Amino acid sequence: MFELRLVQGSLLKKVLESLKDLVNDANFDCSATGFSLQAMDSSHVALVTLLLRSEGFEHYRCDRNITMGMNMGNMAKMLKCAGNDDIITIKADDGTDTVTFMFESPSQDKIADFEMKLMDIDSEHLGIPETEYEAIVRMPSAEFARICKDLSTIGDTVAISVTKEGVGFSTRGDIGTANTVCRQNTSVDNPENATVIEMEQSVTQTFALRYMNSFAKATPLANRVTISMSSELPLVVEYKIAEMGHLRFYLAPKIEEEEEIAGQVETGNRKETKSKLEKKPEVKPMVVEESEPDKESQLKLEIKFEPKTNSEVNTLGETKCKVESDDYTLVETKPEAESNGDICTLVETKPEAESNSEAQVMDVE
Amino acid sequence: MFELRLVQGSLLKKVLESLKDLVNDANFDCSATGFSLQAMDSSHVALVTLLLRSEGFEHYRCDRNITMGMNMGNMAKMLKCAGNDDIITIKADDGTDTVTFMFESPSQDKIADFEMKLMDIDSEHLGIPETEYEAIVRMPSAEFARICKDLSTIGDTVAISVTKEGVGFSTRGDIGTANTVCRQNTSVDNPENATVIEMEQSVTQTFALRYMNSFAKATPLANRVTISMSSELPLVVEYKIAEMGHLRFYLAPKIEEEEEIAGQVETGNRKETKSKLEKKPEVKPMVVEESEPDKESQLKLEIKFEPKTNSEVNTLGETKCKVESDDYTLVETKPEAESNGDICTLVETKPEAESNSEAQVMDVE
Amino acid sequence: MFELRLVQGSLLKKVLESLKDLVNDANFDCSATGFSLQAMDSSHVALVTLLLRSEGFEHYRCDRNITMGMNMGNMAKMLKCAGNDDIITIKADDGTDTVTFMFESPSQDKIADFEMKLMDIDSEHLGIPETEYEAIVRMPSAEFARICKDLSTIGDTVAISVTKEGVGFSTRGDIGTANTVCRQNTSVDNPENATVIEMEQSVTQTFALRYMNSFAKATPLANRVTISMSSELPLVVEYKIAEMGHLRFYLAPKIEEEEEIAGQVETGNRKETKSKLEKKPEVKPMVVEESEPDKESQLKLEIKFEPKTNSEVNTLGETKCKVESDDYTLVETKPEAESNGDICTLVETKPEAESNSEAQVMDVE
């Protein structure tokens, strides 16, 4: 028997609205510690983790750890039927293959029960090591969303640069270039509007804007966003969920050679492609993506994390996941013999390990 | 000469906005008593009646009963050009085949005249008997609209169940089931928010959600909606129009065998069709509908009312239509020899009666 | 070196939003007097002029007259990235072929630089003579926009009629006719809502509604619009831009024979085309338009202005352009031998004059 009751039901509605376009199907992991999720996006490039700690619920009961596989689109459809002020209850009886969502209006005059079949989803739990990031930016989430949206009208990728002075976002496209800087500012009237930078060394990395825009769909969840970066590590974009947990997005950086960026010279309105770029084979490791075929710079990337098989670190919250940083494997994929050495991939390397996905939840707090 | 002047012109704008997608062409009947309309929807499944009593207008003049055939889409286009605060005048001179809509801004500084050709529309006036319904639900119109919209994201039909405790709305679709209950509640702070049930016996009927959603487009007309149901009778969804009249929608229930509903078992995300369902021929009585061919439960229904030829009851409001309940004919259509007896149809049975459609308006108040 | 700084950056955002659908590419002319633009719409039927006087900017520096060719869509994309409260700086260094837009948030915490390549656009500067118009209407811009939008649901063209009593807008289409009159009203509480008519003689002219709707996209720029008309001259629709200048749209009237208008008789829902109309060849002078081929009344028009080659009147604001009214040439184009004499065109007649487009800016104040 699993049951949770969330008075602020709109939180769950917002979580699903932010996930439904990024992730198709995912396993929710229910344990005594909380309700959590870890899933790759449908093109296997980005990773999402959700944590809602049991203490945050008005009522939380989990007799034994269970995994509930759900289609995010269908779950979002059902949660859309909850009013913004409704109390949401999620219930799953032992031995059934359905989950029930109950929505109660604040006045208790309207009660809705939605029942959805659960799915069997094949997934690996990845151990996400607790990492010290070289640069951490905390800024208003709406501003981050606005910048990503603005830049994507100009280009496809964003270079994020963190220095002591501030954080810069740059792009380049057929019609020109754009460069937005948010200065560190801790002395604003409202601390919600501050841009705060915590860093050991300055970092610059480049990411696909289309993923950044997907992540920014979580903006309604929190007024603030935290962006954590280290060279050669995936970036983390984190939204706190009230006092209960967080929604985190991981995305591997694109690694582009200097000349390649310089090669994208606009002449009038056409992008001139240097012949040297044409010699490069497009790298496609198992990843299906809807990118236009003529964008040579759209290198396909795969985030890969080592799956954890050590059971001590597998149960959510019971044992803190204290993995050494060398546990975190950065793999260069060489899809064809002549690898050009420019892809940073973090690969799930042991799919054959046959780990038990049921009780395998990582706490990365 | 016919002329009416409506200070609260937005009412007429809202009426047309609710009708334009449901009804293509319709005859407006103008008599000394009021301005009214009776029309089938374009797929001949639902019936709409509108009544605006003459007393409700600032000015109302109708020298003789006339019928004005109008295309609802075109009329809606013209009324959309009226401002929300405009005074609307409708005028038709004798012997012309046009109608004029005049819109005056409150300051009288802007005056617009729109002229539209009238159409000859072949239609029968149906006598709608004054019926005692077994169950009547009065509830906030926005809540009814929200429930219909929510359920239609899950399924195609809604089973409405009225008991003393409340009214329930249930559906079932590929992704799961939904069941919303509004409890009877007469002691709310604001009587506009009450859900009030008046019933002789509990009733459960199933309807196509796509029609319910069409009806709910009238929500801006009134804060409250009245749903009247009797077993084997069409449901009535009524919106009051200020102090002037009403907009009513009639829809015949779908009659489905128990096994049929049970046959729609979802397995994962696919709907499993029991072979017994495939043996049933799809019933199609003169009705063209855009439903998907594989939904066996989408039985085609036709509402049929006996047309009234008795002139005493035909003139709007002059003689109250006191028809006995056995006047109301429930007809089983048998499109092919092997009728499976599961359609509740109310058929317009005397199209050959050559009734004079001009002065034939029913008052069903 | 050219640099301007506009504290009320939203003005420039609104200017581009109103232009981007009408004009593809245009040359901005920068001189000591101001920042201006003159461009034909993409189908070469309407003419737009923009003037932002140098005094209106917080900072304005223009070392020598320059012309900056820009794609309006791309420029609009970049300006969309400016916040509504941002201060906008436009900068172009000598000898470069790029322009930089800088957006500073009011708090100065966020600064964005957008760089766009300039284009070489072939264009003639037209001398627009200072004309005394026979009728000038000043009215609320929102009301003008609403009327154009409303009428375009009924017909394709609008006949604008100015008399002492007021200004009338009429159209006719398949579904009927519409006629809106705004009465002259100078004694309203709020002068912003007044409709003021200044006229020597009454004028009636017919215009394509699709252009009027394009012009009305400038409505957010100003609460009031000025419509100037003279028989046989293009109409001018003017929006003032704060204290800085204006955005003006010029459109030649359609000239239709009386019989032709009468020929568009609606019968029911179909437009009956008189056979006499079919005998008329459709006039197509170099103009590409997406109008439906069966609308005989959609005559192609071309606005033509004499280009000014007299240098005294060419520099923006330095010498007021005092052209006699006979300088203004109204040309009848005869695309084929059998001209039917019904097109009023104002043609740019001297493209071979090889005028220097750089310093050739007309002040038509």
Please provide a written account of the structure.
The structure is a homotrimer of 365-residue chains. Chain A has helices at 10-19, 72-80, 141-151, 209-215, 258-263, 275-279; strands at residues 2-6, 25-30, 34-40, 46-53, 59-62, 66-71, 87-92, 98-104, 110-117, 135-140, 157-162, 166-173, 176-183, 196-199, 203-208, 224-229, 235-241, 245-251, 265-267, 270-272. By secondary structure, chain A is mainly beta. Chains in contact: A-B, A-C, B-C. Chains A and B meet through helix 2 and strand 9 of A and helix 3 and strand 13 of B.
What is the tally of helical segments of chain A?
Answer: 6
Radius of gyration of chain A: 21 Å
How many beta-strand elements of chain A?
20
Class of secondary structure makeup of chain A = mainly beta
Characterize the quaternary organization of these chains: homotrimer
List the helices and strands of chain A in order.
Answer: EHEEEEEHEEEEHEEEEEHEEEHEEH
Q: What overall form of chain A do the CA principal axes indicate?
A: elongated
Mean pLDDT over all positions of chain A = 77
| Order of strands, widest sheet of chain A | 6-2-3-4-18-17-16-10-14
Largest interface: chains, residues each: A-B, 20 and 22 residues
